[in-house]
C-alpha cells in the first residue's frame, strides 16, 4: 500500500504523527547498545496495520562529535545528497519534485556488494522542520511514495527492486552543548528477503549509521553552515491526521505526484 498524490500529507499532519512516534520510541522494547554503549536501540513489534516492525536508535553527542547546528546543516538540509556521501551502498539520489520549502520527493538508488542482492530503489516524500525555540529541535520525516501514475516523474527512478520505508529523525539541543539524535524506521526491502532477516540485524545496521556519518562529517566539518530558518507550522491538532496511519506502518501508501546490506530510513537494514 502506498500514498498517492491526493493523499499527500501536509506539513502539520506529517509533523504531528512524526513527533508522536519519535517521542514514544524509548518506551518500546529495549535492545542492544552499540559502539561502547553510545548508541541505544529499541523496537516495537508489528501490530495490526503495520507493514513491518519499527526500530529506533538514540545517541547523544558532545560538541566534539558535532554541534546541533552541524548535525542539522548536514542531515536536515540536503539530507538525501549527503546520505550518499556516507552510506556506501547509496549510489544515486535524485530530486523528483519540490513541493514546498519543507517538502520534496526524492528517489534513492542502492547497489550492494553481496552476491545475489539486486539493486533497490526507494522513493520518499521528505518533510523537514526546524524549530529555533529553546531547546532547538529539527525533524526529518520520510514516507514512501509511488510514482507509477505519473510516467514523467517515474522516468526519474532508476531500475531496481522497489522497496519502501518510513522514518522519523529528530535532532534536539541538550544542556552542555550536547545534541540528541533519534531515528525510528520501519522498512521493507522488497523482493524475496524474509522479514526475520531484516529484523534480526536492523538494530546493528541503523546503529552503524552513526559512526559512518561522524567519520564522513569530520572530513567536511569546515563546510558547515548555519541552519536555515523554516516557515512556521500552524498546529492543526484538532484536525484528522491520516498520516498517523502512514507513519505507523511501512506498508504505507506511495505517491504519484500531479528502499544482506542496507536499507534507507536509517539507511541501513540488511536486505537480500
How does this structure look, described?
With 272 residues, the protein is an alpha+beta fold. 24% of the residues lie in helices and 29% in strands. The chain is built from six helices and ten strands; from the N terminus they run αβββααββββαβββαα. It has helices at residues 11-24, 68-75, 79-86, 151-154, 195-220, 243-247, and strands at 29-34, 39-44, 54-61, 90-98, 103-110, 120-131, 137-144, 161-162, 164-173, 179-188. Strands 1, 2, 3, 4, 5, 6, 7, 8, 9 and 10 form a ten-stranded mixed sheet that branches. The two termini are 21 Å apart. The model is unreliable at 1-6 and 233-272 (pLDDT under 50).
Overview in brief:
The protein has 272 residues and is of the alpha+beta class. The protein is 24% helix and 29% strand.
